Amino acid sequence: MEGKFEEHHNPCVEIAMETHKVETPPKRSSLQKLKNRLKETFFPDDPLRQFKGQSTKQKWLLAFQYIFPILQWIPHYNLNLLKSDVVSGLTIASLAIPQGISYAKLANLPPIVGLYSSFVPPLVYAVLGSSKDLAVGPVSIASLLMGSMLRQEVSPTLDPILYLQLAFTSTFFAGLFQASLGFLRLGFIIDFLSKATLIGFMAGAAIIVSLQQLKALLGITHFTKEMGLVPVMSSVFHNTKEWSWQTILMGFCFLIFLLVTRHISIKKPKLFWISAGAPLLSVVVSTLFVFAFKAQNHGISVIGKLEQGLNPPSWNMLHFRGSHIGLVLKTGLITGIISLTEGIAVGRTFAAIKNYQVDGNKEMIAIGVMNAVGSTTSCYVTTGAFSRSAVNHNAGAKTAVSNIIMSVTVMITLLFLMPLFQYTPNLVLGTIIVTAVVGLVDLPAAYQIWKVDKFDFVVMLSAFFGVIFISVQEGLALAVGISIFKMVLQMTRPKTVVLGNIPGTHIFRNKHQYKDAVSVPGFLILSIQAPISFANSNYLNERILRWIQDYEEEEMKSHSDLKFLILDLAAVSAIDANGVMFFQELRRVLEKKGVELVLVNPVGEVVEKLQKVDGTHDLLQPNNLYLTVGEAVSSLFSSMKVVSC
Q: How confident is the model over 74-91, as a mean pLDDT?
């Protein structure tokens, strides 16, 4: 009969189980509490742990290794590791060179800036970064964002010098913001970009990026500067007279070739080198074709002459004054967040595959510093690209030396090979971009979100359609806004469930989930499944009173008066002043109804704050405070029996 809470033939039968005292947490000073809270919030990985018990010399060594991760593995570097890194470095260089030129044009920057951005930043990351697989360079989404935002106020064709200055300044602020997040350990800010938001945003941006390439793939001269689907398609079909069949035919052939090589590498990952080398091969073949047949005289537009030499300094081009300061701050912030999110996500993905740790805060500092340094050496926003990192991983990269090899290869290209790109057709750069962004449309992930959470699916669609029909940055802002609204809604409308007893046990579970769970006469048992704060205390008060009203309506049928309201607080991880007042108000209302309030399993913070407020001490008395719902019901049920006798 133990554990059954139901009416018995003998009203004096007492059902009891051993009860356990709810312990009060040990007393700590306010300073100690604040220190612990800050440590758990900003230092969950406890980076200072490694310094405990070490000599002064060892502490200095560990400090330098922490700041410069390259010092951790460079003493153990050997020839076998170098061989693997050389192969992977040369492989990603073959991909980085055409992508760098292509993505720079996507940002409305001179193509040479894309190569500059593939030279200096990888060297900085190799020293400061903690990922073995991340391949650094320009990426399509950040390039698109920068190009679309800066072009709203400054024309890259009418005022190219000012546009370039704003691009470098935006990159500086992006790096400053990224590094600051790492130094202040505020990386949780990027978590506001949920998975659903990113999937929708990336897919929408991929389509917009692809549509923008219609200018090069169709040979259109007069093309819209807007990014939306409607103006782009309108521009395409209003300029049909400018379509060049030579450009279309040549572009179609290279696009099919690149898509086929990508498909082969997806189906057979060991053949990754096919898709990795395909873009550079396309550039070489198309350039030779244009040069041999003088195709630039027959409707095929080419890049033209590119400057030769290494990155010129650009610190004197940074603009911190004037009417455009708001624009560069906003551009730097948005591109910084997006590139940071992509870089850390890619780094963690491959770290999980190889079973090593990537420190998110150190990655933020590394990416931020390389962008800040890059802005002074004619580079624009860079991060770890997924496609390039995947090639780096599949090519067998062992350390960040692969980035150094790639950088050296780009350096040789800048010094000696730039004249060879003069006849490279713009259409092949367009096909490279289209092929690269196709992988950003993740339909299986979208379907998974639909199955798991319909609200998240709405967020994803908001980002997708916002990017396509409004603008890239406004679509992203719309999705983030809806995500934050969902989070606020969950905070202000926390879930409360009615618990029932599983027959034959002292276990209490959600009656909606467990159909066998039954109510105990005279008891209303509720579980509050969120922290209690100013944002939800009024709602909780109203919701609990509604549960009581529902119980009172039912008791008219069952003739069972409500005696106890038991609140299971196991999921209430925190409480504020409004939460304490919520308990006071609820208790006063229940006293008028003749109902006793009982608390179960409150966490230490809840107990501490209830102890400090007059009028709530009674709630912490043994008859009002229990460790489990089973113990509370057993004890109170037994006392009801004794009283009735």
A: 91
